[in-house]
Design brief:
263 residues, rod-shaped, 13 helices, 2 strands, single chain, two-stranded parallel sheet, 2 domains, mainly alpha, 60% helix
């Protein structure tokens, strides 16, 4: 949440205004504690001063209450000293509650704009900052390493999936030139580029049925082979002149597609 969203949220304001309870629930005796906590967090000297003042005043009132005889509950004794003590306590309580509510607005503004977090979150951030894995290594680019690892993992996953699903063999790219799909046999496709037997037969059958392929996109659309098997081979396939269609003529790439309407 942004600071503005926090300040506009009634739930957030109520949750972070719980400090006023130090004054209300303790009848003013712990007003100083509430101001000290807020002052130390916000590093506000005024609040720290108020916290020290109310704390000293609260201790003084507790000590003063033992210096005069107030009698018993059944027979209370009223004296000038007890009246003064009562008024001092009441003014301390009322003044502490009033000041707490007055400064609560500034506290909420500071809280909304601060990055104050729990101790365990700070400890986790410190541990991450001092972790050996974050130590810089000369000549090493973390982003490039992560990208390379992701790409290698993706290629390995595709190769494993293709091998398990279609019996695809390891391609032999290092020792061959780009393969002409329009003249390659089933054995060529299986041995040289690693396409499985079933996929190679589909390519040859599609080529014999509708003529040579003119582009890689046409190969994917007409052969019926799963795209994830063909895409890794894109740079190793070419689409040159095709073989004879059995009628004694050589059909040029794209000729069949110009005479056939695919619906």
């Amino acid at each position: 949440m942004t600071p503005e969203e926090k300040l506009c949220s009634r739930t957030w304001r109520l949750r972070n205004s719980a400090g006023v309870l130090w004054s209300i629930l303790s009848f003013g005796l712990l007003t100083g504690v509430g101001f000290l906590i807020r002052g130390l967090k916000a590093k506000n000297k005024l609040w720290i001063g108020l916290g020290v003042g109310f704390s000293v005043l609260g201790v003084a009132l507790l000590v003063a209450s033992t210096t005069f005889d107030s009698g018993t509950k059944a027979a209370p004794i009223h004296s000038v000293a007890s009246d003064i003590w009562g008024w001092c306590w009441f003014l301390t309580f009322a003044g502490g509650v009033a000041l707490t509510f007055v400064f609560n607005r500034k506290w909420l503004i500071w809280k909304a704009h601060s990055t104050d977090s729990k101790w365990y979150a700070q400890a986790g951030s410190a541990a991450a900052a001092t972790s050996p894995s974050n130590s810089p290594v000369v000549g090493f680019d973390p982003n490039a390493g992560a990208a390379a690892l992701s790409a290698a993992t993706l290629r390995t996953s595709h190769a494993t999936t293709a091998t398990q699903t279609s019996g695809q063999q390891e391609p032999n790219f290092g020792t061959t030139q780009p393969l002409n799909v329009n003249s390659a046999s089933v054995q060529d496709l299986t041995r040289l580029v690693g396409i499985g037997q079933d996929a190679a037969q589909r390519i040859v059958q599609a080529r014999q049925g509708s003529g040579p392929f003119s582009s890689f996109e046409q190969l994917m659309s007409k052969s019926g082979v799963q795209p994830h098997l063909l895409i890794p081979l894109r740079d190793h396939l070419v689409f040159g002149p095709g073989e004879s269609d059995g009628t004694g003529r050589q059909e040029a790439p794209g000729h069949a597609s110009s005479r056939r309407l695919d619906l």
